[in-house]
Fold 2-isopropylmalate synthase.
Amino acid sequence: MSMKQATANKYRPFPVVDISDRTWPSKTITKAPIWSSSDLRDGNQSLIEPMDAEKKMKFFKTLVDIGLKEIEVAFPSASQTDFDFVRHLIEENHIPDDVSIQVLTQAREDLIRRTFESLRGVKKAIVHFYVAVSPSFRNIVFKQDKAAMIATAVKSAKLFAELAAEQPETDWTFEFSPETFSMAELPFSVEICNAVLDVWKPTPQKKAILNLPATVECSTPNVYADQIEWFGRHVNHRDSVIISLHCHNDRGTGIAATELGLLAGADRVEGCLFGNGERTGNVDLVTLALNMYTQGVDPKLDFSDIDSVRHVVEECNQLSVHPRHPYVGDLVHTAFSGSHQDAIRKGFALQKDKEYWEVPYLPIDPSDIGRSYDAVIRVNSQSGKGGITYLLEQDYGISLPRRMQIEFSQIVQKETDRLGLEMTSKQIYDLLDREYLQIKEPVQLIKHRLQEENGESTVRLEVNVGGKTEHWHGVGKGALEAAVSAIPTNVEIMDYNEHAIGVGSTANAAAYIEIRMDGGRSLHGIGIHENITMASFQALFSALNRAMQLANKKVF
Ligand SMILES: CC(=O)SCCNC(=O)CCNC(=O)[C@H](O)C(C)(C)COP(=O)(O)OP(=O)(O)OC[C@H]1O[C@@H](n2cnc3c(N)ncnc32)[C@H](O)[C@@H]1OP(=O)(O)O
Ligand SMILES: CC(C)C(=O)C(=O)O
Ligand SMILES: [Mg+2]
């Protein structure tokens, strides 16, 4: 069957929600939600090799350092490793007072008892159970009708209340997930959640968490937002309930669904760092938080050293973060292409006078997340003069005049095409050095003597022309004009620029000259020297040699 036939016969569109007076489209996110990391549970259960105790502890500490206050640490009834990890956290006092650990269980008595057992002695904890509610799970996985599913949920909710009462020293929060919420009939999701709430009797002071997962993402994000808004309007005791989002990323829209879900009234978000998790992953907490940050909303999570966080996550998950991953990928603050580099360079130049961050193509200041500007502009065959100029300015203090930027970028372009590779800033400088600063053929300036009298300069140049020493002599209004007049061929100066490189006693002068020889094509030369006159003479001879090589002119 072709894909075309399969589309028509095999798949159905997801039904829309009947909520024409939805309010979320005109809202904005103005504050951070309650965050809960599920890295050590949902993330962990999806790894090729689940984390051992040491990795879990390392990850846990990182989550605490970032500022997570709710951390789902385990599925304690799943394995001895998970059970022991919870015990270790509690017994070795690793849980800060302002952090709640969270654990998950199925709605099965033995598993729930074991889960509470793992939490003995904890100061505060979120205990979380789930029952899948969508038709396919009722029909395929559980083979139970709605009433039986509700009965299972209610029975577990009661056992939660009972077991919690046996450990009154703990500050308990209860959480229920109607798993596969996003694929279920909304009235049934509300019904089962209300039944659980009837048991737990939450209050505005002691809220229960209802976590509404897109266990498998199966619709466009606006549908999920409608589902959240609809649910919030119909669930009982709304003021005593924390509505939590738990999006997976099967369609690649987990971030969008979560953001729209927050607009639709949710209070809390569960997810994993850099989007690890089942299949295509859980929603990425880092991207969500930094999306808020770049809108001027304090996300209450700290990613000011994002690379250290990534390092821990990669090590613990044994999975690498993609180079294009939002905010953190190796290439996401990098521009190779010419027009992007040009805009970024101009943006950086003006940024210091601005109140708000406004550098084109960079939605975040890389330094806010601990990145340097080093990688922002990188040069390959797609790059133009802007990027090359930026690197020479930043790394070598060399500010090429505009027409010289054009000339040199063509030389770089040829080289990147030849190499088929990226060129580092050092390689670009070396190319400039080879093409302009070290060019000594066919004419090499050996030494000069300059005399200034009555506003007139006289220059005597000792040069090596094709292996023979010659002496040239010229007069002009300034040193450069005198040197030009000393050259035994027709040379016109089209443009001249100079600037200092560095400051103080170690400063050098850079001189840039554009000349036309014998009415031919204009070409540039550069000189860098501690003495400005010498720099300008070097620039002149650099340009002269380039012009002569181009014209294939060996001697005068
Ligand atoms: C969307 C999610 O991420 S949900 C969380 C998923 N995470 C995990 O499963 C990781 C930890 N899980 C485990 O280690 C194991 O599955 C355990 C220990 C929980 C259970 O192990 P087992 O008893 O061997 O069962 P198994 O792993 O095959 O799970 C399937 C059984 O659980 C039942 N089940 C699935 N979900 C639930 C639930 N929420 N409540 C009650 N029973 C459930 C299934 O109907 C099936 O029962 P059956 O064997 O009677 O048909
Ligand atoms: C257990 C629940 C919350 C879950 O992970 C999911 O539905 O994706
Ligand atoms: Mg999940």
Remarks:
- The mean pLDDT is 96.
